[in-house]
Amino acid sequence: METSRLGRTDIELTRIGLGCGNFGGVGSDPATWGQGESEEEAYELLDAAVAAGIGFLDTAASYGGGRSEASIGNWRDERGSRVLLSSKVFSSVTGDPDDHGLAGDRILREIEGTLERLRTDRLDLYLTHAPDPETPIEETLRALDELVRAGKVRAVGGSNLDAEQLEDALETSERLGLVRYEWVQNEYSLLERGSEDVMEICEREGLGFTPFSPLAGGWLTGKYRRGESYPAGSRMTTRPGPYEVLENDRTFEALEAFEAAASERGVAPGTLAIAWILGDPRVTAVIAGPRRPEQLEPYLAALELPLSEQERDDLARLFP
After folding, report:
1. pTM higher than 0.70 for the full model?
2. pLDDT tens figures, 238-251
3. Catalytic residue among 43, 63, 126, 299, which?
4. Most buried among 94, 135, 201, 285, using CB within 10 Å?
C-alpha cells in the first residue's frame, strides 16, 4: 500500500490506518465497556487489515477501558506483528470521572499502562485525545517531550484540536524548545469540514493530518435514506446523538446527488467519499473504522480511485 511521511518525522504511514475504537467497547464510554468487538472479532479485523497492507493501528488507552490496547497487544504477541502503533491519552481507563486530562504527571503515568497493554517498550505515535482547559499546554508538552527524550514515544500529535489550540501548542513548543505536535487527528468528511482551518495550519507548518470518521458515522455509505427506517444496529439506532443534526431534507438531497455521482463512476458511495479525502494533498492517512472485515473494501477501493481537483470541488459543492 502507498505510504506518506508524517509531518517532519521519519515515520511513513500507509494511506489507510485501522481504527480500533470498538474493540471491547464503543469508544471511551464506560457504559459500553465489554460490548463492541470481542477479542476474537478484533483479531479477525486485525488479520484482514494487515493482509490488505494496512500498516498502522489507531487506538486509545480508554477505548473499552483498556480492552482495545490489550487486544492489540495480545494479537501482536501471538502474530509476531510489528505494525506501527498509535494511542491516545485523556480519558480514564477505569471509568473514574475524576481521572482524566493532560496533567504532566498523569501523562507520565498513563503511558506506562499503554505500553504494558500493547506489549511494547516504545510507542510509535502518541496523541492527546482532547484539549485540557485545566492544564497549561506548557505542562502537557513538557511531559510529552520527556517521553520522546526517554525513547518511549517516537512522535506526538493532537486530536480534536481547533485552530487556536493548535497555534498555541506550536508557539509554545517553538518558544520553549519542546517537542511539537507533528500531526492532528480530527473528524473530517464531506459532511463535516469544520477542520479545514486546522488543515491550513498543518499545511503551513509541515504537519500531517489523519482524519477520522471519513464516512460521517455511515451517512456517506448510502445506508440512511429519506423516508426509510435506519438499519438495525447502525450508528443512528445505537448512538445517534452526534449525527442527528444531519436529519433534514437538505442533507438527504445532497446524499442522493452524491450517490448518483458514485453510481456514474461505478463505485460505492463510501468509496467515493474516502477517495475525496485521500485526494486532498494535506491528508497523510485516513483512519478506517470497520466493524467487520468486509467493511474495509470501500477504503481499499478508494486507493484506486484518483480524483482531480475539479472533481473534488464538484463533489464538495453537493454539500453546502
Report:
1. yes
2. 788 888 999 999 99
3. 63
4. 285
